[in-house]
Sequence to fold (660 residues):
Amino acid sequence: MTETLSYLLMAWSDPQLLLLTALGTFAGIYIGAIPGLSVTMAVSILVSFTFSWEVNDALALIVGIFIGGVYGGSRSAILLNIPGAPSSVATAFDGYPLAQQGEAGRAIGLSTVMSVIGGLVGTLVLASAAPVIGDLALRFAPRDYFLVAAIGLLLVGSLAEGSLAKGIFAAALGAIIGLVGMDPVTAQGRFTLGQVELMGGIHYVVLMIGLFGVAEAFYQLHNLDTPPVRQKVDKIIPSLAMVLKFLPLSVRTSLIGVVVGVLPGVGGDIAALMAYDHAKRTVKNPTKPFGKGAYEGLVAPETANSAAVGGAYVPMLTLGMPGDAVTAVIIGALVIHGLNPGPMLMVENPHIFWFTVGNLALANIFLLVFGLMGIKLFAKFVEMPKAVLIPLILVLCVVGTYSINSSMTEVYWMLGFGLLGYLLKIFGFQMGPIILGAILGPLMDTSYRQAMSSVGDNPVELLRELVTSPLSLILTSAVVLILLGNTSLLKKLKCKCKAAMARG
Amino acid sequence: MNKTDKMLVGERTFCVLLLAFSLVILYLAYQIAGFSSINSPGAFPLGVALVMIISAAKICVDLIGKARPDCNGWLDAMQQFRRQHFPKRTLIFAALAVAYLAAIQWISFYASTFCFLVLSIVYLRGGRIAGALLVAALLLLLIYLLFTLAFSVYLP
Fold:
């Protein structure tokens, strides 16, 4: 117990960790707020710089950037109507109308406090649920891992914007990229095209920097001439009465955020949209109509996307599966530092878990401090011209990629992935499923082969186990339900039911 | 299906190329170990390749109900695609990026980064050379302070 407490408070008591968390949160707010810079991009690039650091130092900075970045996206959503991050799309629905009505300061202040409440609820759930899930995960058979990964990929495919087919294609493409290199069991080359350089595989941080950095930079070239919008910002700190008024809603939407965040592959963007929808359906008398500056429409997504951060850590730390794109990168950081995210992490390195919990809480406190001050400097910073920002992003991508393995070949790969990502983005493909596919693909491959070996390569026996083991049966049912839920047959049935109900 | 229910210029060609790419992936997956065993190194990649083919085919099928873009023939579609998605600005920036990567190995990281930043900023902002020189120098100083001194990162 004393040991747990000391791990929990490690970031709070060590000046260096305290400073790194503060620095990360501060930088994250600005990175998240600048349209064109995303928290995923920042964390991907940052991970490559922190390879040589102590793991706690690296994690402290990354956690700060993550928490600050998710919140920072709301700033530009409110002030410029440009969500700085996908998780802030729903924030713009009511945040920007509030800014237009001269209430930008109050909107920012309320979103800050609500983000902190959401973040703390997410951290609390992580602290209480992860040990339980971790214990359960120890009983997972390889087939269960395969199924959980499949659920993650299907969810990210089906819930992401656009068609399920595009989501699944992107995830499968990512899986193929993740499988490039030597087979871990037989050392046979897979998709290497006879190139020795490819035998070691493609580092997914290279893929991430390409897809989230370079592709985004090229995409932003289209918005180069968008003039900045300036808003009047004052009265930042919200009154206690205002915070208390929205507290019940914020707790409800925080829980939505955590639950959505826990699902492998689904992150703050979906959580925020679901919470917004919940607020719209349940709040009967909003302060203003939804879409026209309702504070409830601001509170719901802001609490949910922050709570989803804690939720996203649950599958990452207990199953070794990313809760969203950012935790996918953090998995990479942990692996590079010799740690193995998954059920054994809680057994072998519990300090990492409790350190992360304490660090997340600390970052939320810093968020409250930095979120409510420095708004004048902030307003200047977000107006940084894109003509300067875009070349700078490219330079950072080059430096970040090179620092992984000191390889210029990987830098060219990164640029190639960036151009591929740009093309895919044009035609409505999401980048998230590609990354998750690249991480979950090799994991699924290993789990599949272990599961097959355990039943003597007998597929019938594997199928029997899928329906006889209670845990596997639940997971198999979830896979089937997600697939059925996305078929046109079910959609037609739903429409018919609705029509029948409407007829009375 | 797309909200607009209208195909983007080049979307059909792109989707067909994705399907063709998926078939190539299936072939490469088959090359790993053929159908030798359900637990071979190529078994899972074959499954993933099949998923790619099915989803790419579904993406192509989804296009059938969509209205075609307003263009007269293949050449016009190509030109529209280039104008919309690869305008001069994107092409020049891409060329600058490739030249930058090539120059890193020839003239060192700092010199090439400085040149790349100046040229890109001047081009994207439409002139203002003095400002671009100053901004590029400041950014280079920041990169040095951050990556060389603070992070001790190996630079190209």
